[in-house]
Amino acid sequence: MQRGDIVMLGNSTASRDFKVANPAPGETSNTSYVITTAKVRKATYAERERLFGAVPTAPFEIGKDRIDSADKPQSVALVGHVPMLP
User: Fold this and answer.
1) What residue ranges do the domains of the chain occupy?
2) Burial, 36: exposed, middle or buried (Cβ in 10 Å; 0-12, 13-18, 19+)?
3) pLDDT tens digits for 39-58?
4) pTM score, two decimals?
5) Which of 18, 21, 30, 37 has its CA 20 to 30 A from that of 63?
């Protein structure tokens, strides 16, 4: 996948643990959660019903998460105007 690609939901997921940075009542900074995310892949016409978003050519990120670099993370736009390649 690269910037400018339309993406769809893949068939695999990735799970990881994270610790709470600013605990809510009943939590501590040692409270941990497991997050499972779906992986995405470049969209194909044949599976267009699985379209999910687009990898913008000029991403703007709100917040930052630590994702394993082996998963080759990319920002994916889900809504709004997205800069794309012509």
Assistant:
1) 6-71
2) exposed
3) 888 888 898 888 888 887 77
4) 0.52
5) 30
Pick the closest to residue 57 from 86, 84, 79 (CA basis). Answer: 84
Q: How far apart are CA 55 and CA 74, in angstroms?
A: 7
Q: What is the 3-state secondary structure (H, E, C) of the chain?
A: CCCCCEEEEEEEEEEEEEECCCCCCCCCCCCEEEEEEEEEEECCHHHHHHEEEECCCCCCCCCCCCCCHHHCCCCCECCCCCCCCC
The sign one gets for the Cα dihedral 27, 30, 31, 37 is: positive
